[in-house]
Specification:
- About 20% of the residues lie in helices and about 25% in strands.
- The chain is of the alpha+beta class.
- The protein folds into 2 domains: about 40 residues; about 190 residues, Umud Fragment, subunit A, CATH 2.10.109.10.
Length: about 260
């Protein structure tokens, strides 16, 4: 302490330490708050972006049944391109412009007419205006047999008439005879209405599809599966099949 200075210039060590601590703390408070705000804003923006992408661009989908074997397997996890057919804007009933229209041979994800809240995945085999029929498991569209290398036939025998099939098909069958009796393997010919499509599972003998509950309207088609991003065998006896029974060879597999 310099005795030549006036008293108000005198500073004790305690004063110096307190001022130092105060100066050290004051600039950090807004910095911490700013960092916390930046982090919160980043998380919120990322979450909002995720919701937008999920609603309008791409969505994950799990295969729960074997109706599309061997194109798709139970335990496959898919990324579905929702933008290609024009994604629906949630809560509005409006759709974004489509990049393409559904076509024969496309594998599509849709909401079936009898279970509108569920997602199904099947292969689209007929478009609006097409005449479609099946003769002993062989598919014909507009009078021409369709080459279907992806189809799996598990039951070579025929089957009896299905009452549910007749109930809806008789309204669309061409020149329906009085005794029209459609079965799983033989039915039609049917004319596909406007803005509607006919879908079948590739596992033709084990698929609940348009044969039983009718056509899929255009506004029910949600997207086209893109590729398998993860897959495991749920029938595996190993303790945690999602970890120990991974089908590594299917990861990245494109859906065709």
């Amino acid at each position: 302490m310099d005795p030549s200075l006036p008293p108000f210039f005198h500073r004790t060590d305690a004063d110096s330490d307190e001022s130092h601590v105060r100066r050290a703390l004051e600039p950090r408070r807004p910095g911490v708050l700013r960092s916390l705000w930046d982090w919160t804003r980043s998380v919120a923006l990322a979450f909002m972006l995720f919701l937008v992408v999920r609603a309008l661009v791409v969505e994950a989908f799990k295969i729960p049944t074997g109706s599309m074997e061997g194109t798709l397997l139970v335990g496959d996890f898919l990324l579905v391109n929702k933008a290609v057919y024009g994604a629906e804007i949630p809560g509005t009933g409006l759709h974004l412009p489509a990049f393409a229209e559904p076509g024969r041979g496309d594998v599509v994800v849709f909401n079936p007419p009898h279970e509108p809240t569920k997602n199904y995945v099947k292969r689209l085999v007929a478009e609006p205006g097409d005449t479609i029929e099946m003769r002993e498991k062989r598919l014909f569209v507009n009078g021409t047999e369709v080459d279907e290398p992806y189809v799996r036939i598990a039951d070579p025998s025929g089957d009896a008439m299905h009452a549910d099939m007749r109930r809806w098909q008789v309204k669309h069958v061409v020149a329906a005879p009085t005794g029209y009796a459609p079965s799983r393997d033989t039915w039609g010919p049917l004319v596909v209405p406007d803005s509607s499509y006919f879908v079948l599972g590739d596992n033709r003998d084990n698929s609940e599809d348009s044969r039983y509950w009718g056509f899929v309207s255009r506004d029910r088609i949600r997207g086209r599966p893109w590729f398998v991003y993860y897959s495991f065998d749920p029938s595996s006896d190993e303790g945690v099949p999602w970890l120990n029974a991974v089908r590594w060879g299917r990861i990245g597999h494109r859906i065709q």
